[in-house]
Amino acid sequence: MSRAAQRNRTHGWNHSLVTRREALQAGAIGILGLGMNHLTGLREANAASATKPHGKAKKLIFIFLSGGLAQHESFDMKPDAPENIRGEFKPISTKTPGLQICEHLPLLAQRSESWALCRSLTHGSNEHSAGHHMMLTGHSTLPTGFSPNAPSRKDRASIAAIGGYALRERQKNNLPTAVVLPERLVHSSGRVIPGQHAGEMGPRHDPWLIEASPFHNASYGAFPEFAFDHQQRGKADNRLFQAPQLSLPSGLGMESVEGRLTLLKSMKRQRRALGHHAQVENFDRLRQGAVSLLTESSVHEALDVTHADSKDLDRYGRNSFGWSLLMARKLVAAGVTLVQVNLGNDETWDTHGNAFPHLKDNLFPPTDKALSALLDDLQASGELDETLIVMAGEFGRTPQITLLEKHYKLPGRDHWGALQSVFFAGGGVQGGNVIGASDAMGAYPTERPVKPENFAATIYSALGIPATAAWHDIENRPHQIYHGEPIAELF
Question: Could you tell me which PANTHER family the record lists for this protein (predicted)?
Answer without folding.
Answer: BLL7424 PROTEIN (PTHR43737), DUF1501 DOMAIN-CONTAINING PROTEIN (PTHR43737:SF1)
